[in-house]
Amino acid sequence: MGRLKKKVYLEREVSWMYFNHRVLQEAQDNRVPLLERLVFLGIYSNNMDEFFRVRVAILNRPQSRELRQDSRSRKEAVAVLSQINDLYKRYAEEFEQTFASLKRQLEQYNIYVVGEKDIDNEQRKQINSLFIHKLSPYLHPRIFLRNSNFKDLDDESVYLSIRLLQRDGRKEYALLEIPVERFGRFVELQAEDANERKTFMFLDDVIRICLPYIFAGQPIVKYEAYAFKLTKDAEIDIDLSLEGALNKVDKAVKNRRWGQPVRFIYDRNMPPDLLKQIRRNFNIGETDNLIAGSCYHNLKDLMSFPDCRSSELKYPVWQALSVPEIMGSESVIEVIKRQDLLLHYPYHSFSNYICLLREAAIHKDVYTIKITLYRLAKHSVVAESLICAAKNGKKVTVVIELLARFDEALNIYWTKKMQDAGINVILGIEGLKIHSKLTLIKGRGVNIACINTGNFHEGNARTYTDLSLMTANRSIVKEVEGVFSFIQKPYLNGNFKKLLVSPLTLREGIKELINVEIRNARRGKEAFIKGKLNHVIDKEIVNKLYEASVAGVKIDLLVRGSCSLVTGVEGISSNISVKGIIDRYLEHSRIFIFCNGGKMKYYIGSADWAYRNFDTRVEVLVPVLDERLQAELDVIVDYGLKDNQKGRIVDGTGENKILQEGEAFRSQEELFNRYKRLCTDE
Questions:
Q1: Closest to 382 in 3D by CA, of 421, 426, 351
Q2: pLDDT of residue 2
Q3: Which of 663, 635, 637, 507 is nearest to 578 (CA)?
Q4: Could you tell me the domains of the chain?
Q5: Is 435 one of the annotated active-site residues of the chain?
Q6: What is the CA angle 237-238-242, rounded to 5?
Q7: Residue predicted with more confidence, 659 or 500
Q8: What is the DSSP letter of 429?
Q9: Is the predicted pLDDT of residue 680 greater than 80, yes or no?
Q10: DSSP for residue 296
Q11: Helical packing angle, 408-420 and 381-391, nearest 10°
Q12: If pLDDT is split at 50, 70 and 90, which confidence band does 195 have?
């Protein structure tokens, strides 16, 4: 297998580009409601921003720690960057064509996205009024001077680069930030037939129209404005073992805006002299991902395009459901003591979990609550529930991961607030991210653990598919408590027989589960692996799966994101099939099912199959022991594998085909209908 590895290992970044193309393809799907297709364009754009800020930034670094972990040379990194750039250019053209097509289709429903040349005199008056009464105080041009330093520009923002032609023929240059955060990206303009026609304009174009007012009093005869966007290296590398970790992370987050540019996108119509001025002031070379694009950038804002009060152009609402076992007024704690519960968000409401926290916060027999938090909502009900518990005299311990990428500021905010409430906040382990999702509730006659596949985050729980196991199983509860002990004293390895915990037992545990299938296949026994996860990119595990395939193990996986497996290669991966589902919910849960000689084993948890999950994070997989819940996991995975509407073939080619064979089957819709029936039957 070793000598074949390079031929059958798809680089993670290239595979990720294929994944994001699946998102773009969803925006191109005529079966998806029009306004939802705009949302998918926004998701694609946002994903691409984060990809450049992180993965491309890592590849660009001469001595990247992650490159060393991946055993990739600088030469290999450059080759991957070349592939990324080729794919990016191809996909960017598709993106522009798709956006143009969607705008034309919206016009069939009397929804118009207009430019500055498409408005009438009445609408121009509206824009002038908007500028005078609202916009004007928030527009502050910065003039290009010989020693201007624009390194502080925020890569979350879009800027207009402005060329000003003076009466004497001289040119002056300026830049202006578009105040999207305050006003939104889209301005609705009223028309005479306002009840029927809805007209929207990018805030960028509104500002272009207002340039004469912004530069009033200047000897300028012509104004030109062209959008550009910077993407910067967003990595933070801090030694959290030192004093003042909170302040260090806080400072690093604020300094992120000073990161090195890794991408510069500009309006392809920008005049050469203006582009030259910008490159000079930003010290951007020819090889610094200088990309000519459309006149609009940061199109992640399409995720917030107005709903136009048009329900027919949106997905029908799927109301989150209560879990039948806890729909009444009975104690949630008592229900869990009787039987394990499995919640599946967002089909099930996250309020079911909040009910457990709220009860624990006031329950007279609960003494201790411990939880790991990776990402928190801006208005976190979870954090407020924990603060309430602390104020009620419970001993609350929160392990919070400060370096949850792009959510550091919120995590810092809640850390300080929880500390002020008397909560014992632990900031994690040096060199290991705390990525596990655990809740432990203990007291007199109360021993409950909750193991999630995703964050304790009510916002995520409305859009991400995740699972939550609630159990009073003594062995599991004891080992979850052991994980918290390991986090506090990592030099004590702990004794884990039920849980698979990284960086201690997860890698060897998964390899042994695969080895069991290999041995059984070689003996002529039934052997299979089924799973659902976000990434399969760890080279050792990829090679182990190939070994299993060669032995005759049937492997069926649902992989949303990066997948380095190349399927269908005769003699290597012909027993492996992979699908990636892109639909209204973001697939995020991790489920692992092993045949195990007929005595099947089921696990859920926080870990994907990536180097970081095995070796540089604290992750937990928990066995699901209840046969009822095992059957539910079978349904979830089998529905996904059966999906012939949103399940695209992930085979390493990037074609992302859908095999629409047989009766139409859309897994997310079928799951929602299933849960709805179960609630009704109860």
A1: 351
A2: 41
A3: 637
A4: 11-313 (3.30.1840.10), 326-488 (3.30.870.10), 500-681 (3.30.870.10)
A5: yes
A6: 165
A7: 500
A8: B
A9: no
A10: -
A11: 20
A12: low
**Which residue is catalytic, options 344, 348, 435, 535?**
435
593-618 pLDDT tens trace: 999 999 999 999 999 999 999 999 99
One-letter amino acid for residue 117 of the chain: K
Lookup: tokens for 620: 């937990």
- CA dist., res. 104 & res. 266, Å (int): 24
Q: What is the DSSP letter of 302?
A: G
Which strand (E) or helix (H) includes residue 60? helix 57-60
Structure-token pair, residue 99: 């956006």
Helix (H, G, I), strand (E, B) or coil at 484: helix
pLDDT at position 122 over 70: yes
Q: H or E segment at 292?
A: strand 290-293
pLDDT of 61 higher than 80: no
Cα 229 to Cα 91, 263, 551, distances in angstroms: 18, 8, 50
Identity of the amino acid at 379? H
pLDDT of residue 200: 95
Q: How far is the C-alpha of 45 from the C-alpha of 265, rounded, in Å? A: 12
Note the maximum CA span of the chain.
Answer: 88
- The sign of the dihedral angle between the CA atoms of 381, 387, 392, 398 is positive
How many residues does the structure list for the chain?
682
Tell me how far apart the alpha carbons of residues 173 and 146 are, in angstroms, rounded to a whole number.
11
